[in-house]
Design the sequence.
């Protein structure tokens, strides 16, 4: 039965010319259907299916990226012709149906710099869908990995240390665990406060994709640039992106009562100051508080960030190495808090 | 999302969507011996449609990554939770905070085992009408601080049924229900956990016909501050066997259960309207029943730290109070002839104890008074008027039908 369905469907699609040869541009029919193509090439997002050359769209970066085992991430947005994203009055970036956020993950010293995986976040009529693709060994296409996979890699982090890890490409559900808000999938990085549209792009190009590109003014500091903000604000930007996608009242960690959004009160107990562990198990590390002001060594938020043990580590998915530079920033932030404030 | 035959279709042309004609519920069988079994099982859990059953083959599954289910009305059914059944072994787990995570409604989990997860065993979050049935979650080396925290862990859910499960070795609670409503935990065994069964920040729960033995504390009813859902109330703990809860506390410090004294039968902290009746207690060295306030510093003005309207009636009390493991307990026991009474109250809040056994009050008038100022003395709590009896918890018929 399944084979018959598949064959009929395939025949219909082939008849419409969709997959006879690599499509010259983004195939919006595929993007906007509810399909989960087995091959990334079905979307036509890349010219010649080379992950370095998007067939359309505009690049972007973030003030604070989500740490993913020191991968370099190449991001771009594909928006259907004639449609535009816009910054809404409340600061949310609204992407039209048919948008694809494309993010390729790799290391400069792995696979000759070719990405290991490309994740798509697709805005369909019914909402956002997340699909993970792993690049094939020959590098010519990438294959859907709904169930996720561990890929052994060896790379050097910026401090020169060599890491050999079994890098986890997330499964489709794990995509949602991080990208979930009230049970629906949402983008994490592309929030106004964090979003930088390719500075090299001309005003004209920017206005092709955005109704009001001038409104794109990130408010968070660059997490790793001391000139861009104080230790505290940079630490909060880091927490916003690396933790708050789960740690917010409608996220995957809502039950923890630990809320780390840029907009949350950083002096409140729900921001972790003097907050006792909830459902932390071994994650408490024998400590009493998530954040003990002035005392990073007794703050289990740090303990969890610096662990790679799945029973301890935070975030729970997407990390097999410790982000030393991020943890160092948070240590400094906690160390500088006055001890008396809790 | 409809999806058919990924692996069978021609690779180039499989992007079609199909007409809206939901196929009849189907059984998706997955076997432990399949190459890449972890990935294949996870894929099956993603591709399942509402109404489907994912059938786990018998055997030991060596899993390296946590599994998750986000499709409503799916059954995960194994070939049994014991030897020769479907054993999901996470000893080599490299990622995810739990063995299995369920985030969809109307899910039925039955007849498999989850062993040796690094974090929690099976967690369900925002998963209404979930049924846990004939499952085993175990850390097979027994009590160790390095074991995962919770065995069976539903949270933020309405209508929860936990029926005929076995949980051993959790370094926090074997069966933990948090921030949920309308809950039944029954016919289950919790042994050698820090807390056997714990109902926390939840409303309307029946915990009955369970065996809680050899834990640090048998059955806990807690309410904690600074959480999205609090004000725990309406919990009935009845007709359980709660005995020999003698395992030294092995919870990582900082967690609230690390403060549970070894030898606790039932412990109620900061809840209202809790009924403890018809249980069989024996060999709980600290107390068969403890009723206490939340005594830690907190900054939550909405939080109510006292136990209120607690009723203890019609229970059988075997030996208790012979090894009280709270601060100063041994001295009180010595002064009272070697043991303290089977019911222990810290003195704050209100409780009615109709069992014909002694009650020891620490006479702490509120939660601010430090425990060092305890003035222990026997108390008579039989004179108060118990509040109206709580109603039986009724779950939707469809949930009960699943376990019939």
Sequence:
């Amino acid at each position: 039965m399944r084979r018959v369905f598949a064959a009929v469907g395939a025949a219909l699609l082939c008849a419409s010319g969709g997959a006879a040869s690599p499509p010259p541009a983004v195939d919006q029919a595929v993007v906007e259907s509810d399909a989960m193509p087995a091959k990334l090439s079905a979307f036509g997002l890349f010219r010649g299916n080379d992950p370095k050359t998007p067939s359309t769209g505009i690049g972007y970066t973030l003030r604070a990226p989500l740490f993913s085992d020191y991968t370099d991430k190449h991001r771009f947005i594909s928006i259907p012709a004639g449609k535009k994203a816009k910054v809404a009055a409340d600061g949310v970036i609204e992407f039209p149906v048919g948008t694809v956020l494309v993010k390729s993950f790799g290391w400069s010293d792995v696979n000759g710099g070719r990405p290991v995986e490309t994740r798509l976040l697709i805005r369909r009529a019914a909402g956002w869908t997340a699909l993970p693709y792993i690049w094939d060994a020959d590098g010519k296409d990438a294959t859907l990995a709904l169930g996720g996979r561990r890929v052994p890699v060896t790379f050097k982090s910026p401090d020169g240390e060599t890491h050999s890890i079994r890098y986890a490409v997330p499964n489709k559900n794990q995509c949602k665990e991080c990208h979930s808000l009230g049970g629906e999938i949402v983008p994490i990085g592309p929030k106004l406060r964090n979003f930088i549209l390719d500075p090299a792009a001309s005003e004209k190009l920017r206005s092709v994709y955005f109704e009001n590109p001038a409104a794109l003014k990130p408010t968070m500091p660059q997490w790793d640039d001391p000139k861009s903000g104080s230790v505290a604000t940079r630490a909060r930007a880091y927490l916003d992106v690396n933790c708050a996608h789960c740690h917010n009242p409608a996220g995957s960690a809502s039950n923890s009562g630990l809320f780390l959004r840029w907009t949350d009160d950083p002096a409140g107990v729900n921001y972790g100051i003097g907050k006792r562990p909830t459902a932390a198990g071994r994650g408490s590390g024998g400590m009493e508080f998530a954040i003990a002001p002035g005392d990073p060594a007794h703050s289990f938020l740090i303990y969890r960030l610096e662990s790679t043990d799945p029973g301890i580590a935070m975030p729970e998915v997407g990390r097999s190495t410790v982000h030393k530079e991020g943890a160092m920033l948070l240590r400094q932030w906690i160390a500088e808090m006055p001890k008396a404030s809790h | 999302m409809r999806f058919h035959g990924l692996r069978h279709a021609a690779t180039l042309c499989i992007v079609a969507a199909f007409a809206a004609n939901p196929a009849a519920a189907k059984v998706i069988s997955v076997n432990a011996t399949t190459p890449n079994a972890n990935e294949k099982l996870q894929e099956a859990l993603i591709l399942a449609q509402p109404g489907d059953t994912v059938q786990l083959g018998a055997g030991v599954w060596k899993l390296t990554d946590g599994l998750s289910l986000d499709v409503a009305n799916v059954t995960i059914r194994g070939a049994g939770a014991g030897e020769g059944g479907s054993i999901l072994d996470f000893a080599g787990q490299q990622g995810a905070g739990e063995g299995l995570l369920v985030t969809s409604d109307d899910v039925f989990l039955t007849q498999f085992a989850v062993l040796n997860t690094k974090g929690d065993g099976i967690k369900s979050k925002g998963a209404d009408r979930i049924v846990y049935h004939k499952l085993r979650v175990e850390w097979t080396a027994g009590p160790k601080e390095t074991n995962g925290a919770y065995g069976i862990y539903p949270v933020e859910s309405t209508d929860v049924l936990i029926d005929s499960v076995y949980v051993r070795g959790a370094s926090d609670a074997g069966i933990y229900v948090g921030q949920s409503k309308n809950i039944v935990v029954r016919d289950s065994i919790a042994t050698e956990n820090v807390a056997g069964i714990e109902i926390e920040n939840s409303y309307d729960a029946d915990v009955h016909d369970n065996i809680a033995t050899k834990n640090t504390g048998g059955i806990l009813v807690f309410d904690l501050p600074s959480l999205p859902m609090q004000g725990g109330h309406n919990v009935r703990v009845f007709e359980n066997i709660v005995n020999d809860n003698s395992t030294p506390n092995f919870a990582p410090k900082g967690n609230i259960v690390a403060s549970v004294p070894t030898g606790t039968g039932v412990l109620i902290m900061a809840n209202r309207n809790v009924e403890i009746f018809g249980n069989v207690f024996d060999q709980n060295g600290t107390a068969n029943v403890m009723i206490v306030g939340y005594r830690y510093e907190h900054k939550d003005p909405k939080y109510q730290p006292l136990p209120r309207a607690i009723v203890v009636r019609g229970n059988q009390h075997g030996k208790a109070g012979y090894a009280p493991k709270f601060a100063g307990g041994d001295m009180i026991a010595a002064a009272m002839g070697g043991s303290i009474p089977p019911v222990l109250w810290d003195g704050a809040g209100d409780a009615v104890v109709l069992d014909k056994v002694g009650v020891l009050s620490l006479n702490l008038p509120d939660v601010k008074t430090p425990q060092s100022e305890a003035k222990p003395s026997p108390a008579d709590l039989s004179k108060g008027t118990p509040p109206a009896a709580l109603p039986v918890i009724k779950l939707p018929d469809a949930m009960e039908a699943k376990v019939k």
Summary: Chain A touches chain B through 72 residues (CB under 8 Å).
